[in-house]
Known about the structure:
Elements: H1 4-8, H2 30-48, H3 56-66, H4 74-126
Amino acid sequence: MNAREDFLTRRFYDDSRFPYGFSRSGDFTIAEAEALERCGSLYQAVTEGRVSNPNDDDIRITQVITGEVEASSVEERAWFKYFKSHRRMPIWLIDREKTVVSSLSQYVDEEADMDSDIEELLVGEIS
Length: 127
């Protein structure tokens, strides 16, 4: 666990979801993008429980994420928007994957039923 000051010195980037930066993504205002880059490392560490000495602001950001309180500052609104979009994407992909898999398994089951029907017809014609 690190102190919160260690995280405040780090710039925050998410190259996997925002490869051209937060400001060029179209999801965040310029102020929100700057706030994410400035405070994102700390907020991510707080969200993951990696801060050894959280203060009232850190506790508040966890309350914003859980929906206990509304975001009031630019930093809180930016992190809430990032966190919401960050968590939403994998859920959609998982659900989509399940949909594709269930569709394929249904198709495979239908094919298997057709194969057994054909076998029954062939066996009936031979005997």
